[in-house]
């Protein structure tokens, strides 16, 4: 990644919202205080076109495994680099485990008031 993108992700505070209508899920994701953001609508278990926060195109697949939302994203610009994300709820927090190129990180999200 370019130095400016690394800094952007390092400094980023993300905001995420979910909506479910029948078998369709809509996720809104963006950076707090930054213009833009992305909205993705998909059905669990079906591939769809998405994009990273920086706009890089990705192919994505999301499944529900028990009480966890499991996402697999393949970046189309980075020679098929994969990012795997698992989300689950612990108490009043959403826990997120992200793995990409052999590196992992944990994030905790709080519900907005």
Automatic annotation (TrEMBL):
<dbReference type="InterPro" id="IPR031259">
    <property type="entry name" value="ILBP"/>
</dbReference>
<dbReference type="InterPro" id="IPR012674">
    <property type="entry name" value="Calycin"/>
</dbReference>
<comment type="similarity">
    <text>Belongs to the calycin superfamily. Fatty-acid binding protein (FABP) family.</text>
</comment>
<dbReference type="GO" id="GO:0008289">
    <property type="term" value="F:lipid binding"/>
</dbReference>
<protein>
    <submittedName>
        <fullName>Fatty acid-binding protein, brain</fullName>
    </submittedName>
</protein>
């Amino acid at each position: 990644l370019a130095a400016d993108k690394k800094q952007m992700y390092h400094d980023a505070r993300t905001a995420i919202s979910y909506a479910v209508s029948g078998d369709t899920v809509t996720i809104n994701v963006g950076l707090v205080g930054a213009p833009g953001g992305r909205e993705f609508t998909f059905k669990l278990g079906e591939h769809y076109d998405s994009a990273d926060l920086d706009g890089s195109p990705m192919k994505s697949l999301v499944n529900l495994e028990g009480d966890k939302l499991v996402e697999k994203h393949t970046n189309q610009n980075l020679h098929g680099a994969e990012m795997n994300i698992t989300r689950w709820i612990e108490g009043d927090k959403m826990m997120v485990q992200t793995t990409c190129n052999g590196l992992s990180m944990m994030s905790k999200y709080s519900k907005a008031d």
